[in-house]
Amino acid sequence: MIVGKLKDVAEIKDMLSEDLESLFIIGCGTCVSVSLAGGEREAKSLRDLLELYFRSQGRDVKVNTATIKRQCDDEFIDSEELAISEHDVVLSLACGVGVQHLGIKHPGKMILPGVNTTFYGRNSDVGEWEEMCLGCGDCILDDFAGVCPVARCSKSLINGPCGGSQDGKCEVDDEIDCGWDLIYNRAKEIGQLDRLLSYEGPKDWSTARDGGVRSHKNPEFFSE
Amino acid sequence: MSGSIAHYDVAYIGQALKNNELSQVTLPASSLTECRGEIGNFTLSYQAEEELDQIQTSNIVINLPHQEELPVEGCLSLTGVGEEFLAEADGDKPLIIIQDYQELSAAALSQRGLKLALQAKSEDPAREVYYFYQAMRFMDNNDELYEEARRQEVIFLKHDLGELEISQDGEIFYSREDIELSLSGELVVAPELKPAAEVDRLARIFNITRGPEGYLQVDNIYLQPTLSGKRGLYVLGGARGPNALTYQQEEREYTLQEIKRNLIGVEELDEEERSVDDQKCVVCYTCYRVCPHGAIQRDEELNSMQIMPLACQSCNLCISRCPMGAITRSGEVEEQPQSDRQVIICENSAALAREKADFDPMAGLEVTEVPCVSTVKKEHIYQRLAGSEGDLLILGCISEACKHLTGHDRCEQVVSSAKSDLEKLDLDPERVNYQRLSPRMAADLSAYLTDWKGEVLQ
Ligand code: SF4
Ligand code: SF4
Ligand code: SF4
Ligand code: SF4
Prior knowledge:
heterodimer, A: alpha/beta, Rossmann fold, 2 domains, four-stranded parallel β-sheet, three-stranded antiparallel β-sheet, about 30% helix, B: FAD/NAD(P)-binding domain, Alpha-Beta Plaits, six-stranded mixed β-sheet, five-stranded parallel β-sheet, 11 helices, about 25% helix, binds iron/sulfur cluster
């Protein structure tokens, strides 16, 4: 799912103007809650921390919070309509999608991001996540033993590793597993090594970001 | 799957313990797929022939042998040689017993070694028996066996690391100060003991924490001798730890007694009730993963988490880590302490130390007692700092004496994250302090508090 990381509090503080009178922190109760970055717990402790900070500055800033199920769907936002209008600024702890969706719904309101949207990842341990997919729009996992060369090879190489692969680690950072080492090992495990031998032509990146801003429709909801 | 599920007093994963009073079932570790429920009523799913089957049981005992690694290929293992070995021995060859080749062996292995040496001498008093060791470990009558072996002229040679070498073909080289020796003969070596096979998988299935060496019991005074963090689940032998061989008998007796006591009835450990709001829970599994007592499971009907009342040991760690604030405890009060000197203490350590002290070391401080300091959320820390100009001290336990195993480490993580956030906003991180105590540290407690008070007052 979408993984996020709460922004550094100093950065959040710097986004807020000197004459701020009220701040509404909105947590998001789906992806960023599961990735422990922007749910109710984070919203409330950020509220308390900022209150402590404003007080130390002798400023009287009203800070409130709410956490809604999904900031990327209209119906969930409606309930906070009034509260949003009553505050100077909204700090959204959703991923970038939620922050912008709030902006679309509230054109006159300053909506700030409180979370860095980091990647699409899996939970690899308690409090730990790993990137797995880049959302390229044309999934090729079937050709690579189920390990994504686009997201898990630091250079998105699709015809084998670069010369920097060493002992299963990537030359970009030896904390990173070499994606191609993973592809090779898994292909061997499931008896698909031969499939790696065929040459892959250049990947069509038009379905990824290179084709411009993406959107799509489910045909079952539209008539010709 | 069978319509009605059989219920047993105890399910053994691995080897059963001898007993005639309990109804029991034995399942191989490799067949197990899932454990649900809690003490008194666990449901175990396992692979039986072609299909999944289930049983219910009040207690679970994991009793698996250690995995053994021999330091040299091809030699005999001290745990593997039986009577027939000596009977068939070639008396012309010396018997060479090596007790601690690379690692010190458990006392039970000393005992086996000594018994083997004595048996060899009684079969054939003329046979040369060498016994290499780094440290003789004592239990039961090991000291008598040792004395007897000396009288029987077993040759004991003490060595330090590096003074003894075994070559590929089983020849022994020993050099120490004035002694240089090379020997060959029948070689029996104490194996290095490793955690039982499958413990990784079992830890996951039962949702319990493993110790750093990989055993299913973490090093903690509250778990001795055979408790796991989960009520009703006992770990023995190669599932428990490296010393399990030495205390086998006591551990078995203790475990059976505990099980019999459980069968009479099990009480909840806390009268407060913890519940999960299924509308708020996002099923992130954080509570499940951090609970030190394997007390949480997913409620399949509600698709939210469920806290099992008998299994819960009331540390509140799940409450403080839930990202949605979905877990609440009955009787919870939002207090707003205002004093300039606030202390949050764990009821299992600092609170006990306080009781034991001759005078109250916390007089004049605003003290809040919690079941485990993992109860503390970042929110609490900031609110308390906002409520006064003073300082906040949190007193937790040392890891080995933390009743909730990882609770105090978890609290320390929260405190250090809060301190770093305070620092980033140019707020004084020294207003929050975290200290670990053991229950016996009454003296330290006074000393620490004096120090801390001194600093605060300055
Ligand atoms: S706004 Fe972002 S974090 Fe929230 S539910 Fe939507 S995608 Fe997930
Ligand atoms: S191939 Fe594309 S869609 Fe598939 S996992 Fe990789 S980045 Fe994601
Ligand atoms: S931590 Fe909270 S939200 Fe996550 S599964 Fe547990 S109760 Fe649900
Ligand atoms: S209070 Fe502690 S023991 Fe009980 S369910 Fe929560 S984490 Fe587990």
